[in-house]
């Protein structure tokens, strides 16, 4: 036979639902408070009733001791059942509803007592304090049981102590008054408990609505999951309260924005400073997938209001994607340049083929020389003025693209840039963006022309790009460098409004500036100043007897030109 499974033990515990737990705890607290309040009230009440009973007993004793018949009877008559002291004491006892009134002499012998057989006997408790002239109040136990007592000395007409008077009030009557007060106290306590239970129920219902009746364990798990999710996702999360202050930042938001815990509790304007990123977080700029630049990062921001009046903003790092986009644009520009060269090369080949078929050999030779000379002259002109290979290659390629679009791209005669750039890639980005914007501005206009000028002034690089386009209105010359601002239609692969913003950011990162003004003769002129953009020139060694090499060096450009010819 299979063993009988043990009986399942009944396990008592708190209910799982938060509503029930909160209600149970609050009712328990209300009940505990009611019981505590009742106990705290009953404890002083019992003591107060004791004090009241002892004072009443003392008052009756004083009244009895002031009766002249009592003192005279103790001094002149023996202690008997029918004596004047017994009669007077019993009269006062019945009138005051005391339990007993005992009159005794200096030898502790009773002269009165509710039980007549006790008259003439000594008292069971010491009256020495009263016989010394002191008043005594106490709770004590005598022959009639526990009672509240009051004892006073008994004086004769000459104010000599001839005995004492002891009055007792039954302690049971005091306890009866206390017990009679308990139902009323419990009624008040029950009413208070009922009100507390109702308040607890209302509060629990409100908590239930706000927490959607989740258990405490569920809330704890949600908080743990939220912390893990916030610090684990690869998107920045910024939470703001109803006053617009930052109340939460996850690790990715700290990294993307370049701020720390000191930003918590502050407004975005205080924590981040002025800028488009601040405007997006503060809600002054609305929309979805808003493009913004923070430092060297390109961010995509979204902001969603919350029910409590605050908001949650998410940030995604688009720096790598934007770099890929710029590389794609560069590749597209290279493809356009190659297509333009291919188109131009095909036309020239057709021309050369026609000259050969017409047997115009001398003209064909002259035509080939002109074509090769033009390309060589263009490349040599750029490389002579711009010694950095990246910038030179960029401008040569842009010149080819410009020619295909019907735009003349010129490199100014004042251009002189040595090969000592600290950040050539940054300058390539700046020049490329400005030239592309200029080409877009003049495309389709008559006599379209773009002129680029790069000049070194000590260690400072000054870049100017002029065009013959419509120019930039004066009221838009400040906002044109703002992230997301553009007059062009967004392309299919992304959004516009990044190029000029990056130009200014790259310039400011090097301590420089970027500005736009009207060009002479119309159009726009963009000026970028980059201080400390060049390294110090290396000193040239001067050797004795080096006049002849120096002369050869001075004549090198002429020789190179002669060789090129």
UniProtKB/TrEMBL annotation:
It is a multi-pass membrane protein. It comes from the Bacteria. InterPro entries: HATPase_C_sf, HATPase_dom, His_kinase_dom, PAS-like_dom_sf, PAS_fold, sCache_3, Sensor-like_sf, Sig_transdc_His_kin-like_C. It is found in: Cell membrane. Residues 537-559 have a biased composition (Low complexity). PROSITE patterns: HIS_KIN. One of its GO terms (molecular function) is kinase activity. It is an enzyme of class 2 (transferase). Its main location: membrane. It catalyses: ATP + protein L-histidine = ADP + protein N-phospho-L-histidine. Coiled coil: none annotated. Pfam families: HATPase_c, PAS, sCache_3_2, SPOB_a. Keywords: ATP-binding, Cell membrane, Kinase, Membrane, Nucleotide-binding, Phosphoprotein, Transferase, Transmembrane, Transmembrane helix, Two-component regulatory system. The chain crosses the membrane at residues 20-45, 185-203. Residues 537-565 are annotated as: Disordered. Its EC number is 2.7.13.3. Residues 423-534 form the Histidine kinase domain. This is histidine kinase. It comes from Streptomyces musisoli. The lineage of its organism: Bacteria, Bacillati, Actinomycetota, Actinomycetes, Kitasatosporales.
